[in-house]
Amino acid sequence: MTEEVKTATEIVFGTQFWIATGIFLIAYAVIVSEKIHKTIIALFGAGLMLVLKILEQHEAFHLEEFGVDWNVIFLLISMMIIINLMRPTGVFEYIAIKSAKWGKGDPFRILVIFAIVTAILSALLDNVTTVLLIVPVTILIADALQVDAMPYLISCAMASNIGGTATLIGDPPNIMIASKAQLDFMDFIYHLSPVIIITMVFYVFAIKLIWGKKLKTKEELKTRIMAMNENEAIKDPVMLKKSLFVLAIVLTGFVFHGMLHFQPATVALFGAGLLLLLSKTHEPHHILAEVEWPTIFFFMGLFIIIGGIVKVGLIKWMSVQVLAITQGNMLATSMVVMWFSAFASAFIDNIPYVATMNPLIVDMAKQLWPNLSGLNLLHHPDLMPLWWSLALGACLGGNGTAIGASANVIVVGMSEKLGKRISFGKFMLYGMPMMIMTVIVSTVYVWLRYYVLKI
Amino acid sequence: MRAKDIMIPIQDSLKAEHTLKEAVNLLRFAKKGEEKVGVKGLPVLDDNKKLIGMLSMRDVLKAVHPSYMNLMNLSNFTWDGMVESLAKSAADKKVGTVMSKDVITVSEDDPLMECVDLMLKNNIKRLPVIDKTGKAAGMIYERDVFFAIVKAMLDDDYYVINS
């Protein structure tokens, strides 16, 4: 035990340490400045880590501790392939039009229904995909009803960030946390979904206050919505059946993957392979080309950069500092992690942020419980609330500003193209209070559930 | 035959500051050769007569077609009167924001085959001709290229048959 404690505090501040720290800090600064595309920076930084021998290639490619987290990579790629195959069937257009008709053409009811549908879809698909699928229809509906599209656009981004927090596959930070902490799909359902459902209730009340009175339309315009026939959206019923079949297998697989000792990526990869097979496509080329490779390569580069600073001990040093501040008080640590994560994610990409925080939390745990290892360490009852605080803070923090989450960036980008520009300030005017409200809900939840009721 | 031999000198043109409303009005009545028949596309020039874009009928269609329609299959969910109301709101857009900016051009002395090649490969029906000073000098229309080809095919036979 004494030996392990010793290694935990022994960090060599040598050349390697400073080179790796330098690469990490410069890469982060350039990513934040957005002067160069983040994927390019991540790959270049990763290349430097290898060329300068901070990391051996073997460590970067094959070691879980320092290298690329292939579980995250394959989970993302596989889900993207499944969605790309499902898209042409028209199912997403169908869902969106159907939702608008549930709203009976009433602008506010549609806003609420879209928020809920977006949240549910975001929990099952990734946020960017959901937003790309919902936004075009929401603008069409706003145009049909002759109401301002802005509330629908902003609400779509926010609901997607909230909904994505609910599950393991909903948001990249959760995928990364799940892989690092070896948490399964049902852990997320059990610990995060309840608070997200409560948060959504608050969210609906909030948008009622903000936009409830402003959104009005004429009766005759409502008939435009009611005249739409959602069944016309389905372009390929056969493929739709195949897709839903595979999606059902994948979701069932997620529910039981912990029990069956499968990693989530195994489940998703099997689903992607199966759907590709069933689709009978002879041209997998364009399906694969539509995978968001820049995002995938961003992850890969980032994992290697983080691997470098883990190896030289920077993360360990940071965790020592955090523990010094919180004095090992776990409630305080959880709260600091949640709120710090929220504000950090509001201004920087939550993917590199969580990639850094994950090993930091593991290192903190190693110092708190030096004689534990493996699952006993990662799932230590006192550590669990920290993982959930990180997930809640990092995901919900994305709502804070227009650049806080990829969904926001997409929505703002689209709004600009449509001549309905949402400025940084305008987004923050809605996003920041919403972020603070949702993080307060989470704070109360974490405090009550894990520190008062202890369930 | 070279580009300058087949081009029709530019008579009407647009400026980037024109509104779409003004532009379509001009498109309606613009001269093609000697007649005022309306044209399917006009060059957009700056104050020094340099070509900065083209505005075609297709660009006008694009100006009323909302970009979100490109992202998904929404054609089944449009309504009667949609084009008309979007046309009204597009009327005040500036030509500079609607025009096609990456215009393929030829120089005056380029051979006709170069023009044909560019038209086919880029699927365009109008090709602006740029003179040595960099100014837009004329336009080559698919129709005129067609007649040049017709002439080359029929010329000898034509006189034989008629004589």
Structural commentary:
- The complex is a heterodimer of chains A (455) and B (163).
- By secondary structure, chain A is mostly helical.
- Chain A has one domain (2-67, 91-233, 292-452).
- Helix content of chain A is 76%, strand content 0%.
- Chain A contains 24 helices and no strands.
- Chain A has helices spanning 2-9, 15-33, 38-51, 57-62, 70-86, 91-102, 107-124, 127-145, 150-164, 172-181, 185-191, 193-211, 219-226, 237-260, 264-279, 284-289, 293-312, 314-326, 330-347, 350-368, 374-378, 384-397, 406-417, 424-452.
- In chain A, helix 3 packs parallel to helix 17, helix 18 packs across helix 20 and helix 19 runs parallel beside helix 22.
- Chain A is globular, with a radius of gyration of 22 Å.
- Residues 1-8 of chain A have low confidence and may be disordered.
- Chain B is α+β, with helices and mostly antiparallel strands and 163 residues long.
- Chain B has one domain (3-162): CBS-domain.
- In chain B, the strands form 3 sheets. In chain B, strands 1-8-7-6 form a 4-stranded mixed β-sheet. In chain B, strands 2-3 form a two-stranded antiparallel ribbon. A two-stranded antiparallel sheet of chain B has the order 4-5.
- Chain B is globular and about 55 Å long.
- The mean pLDDT of chain B is 88.
- The interface between A and B is medium-sized, with 23 and 13 residues.
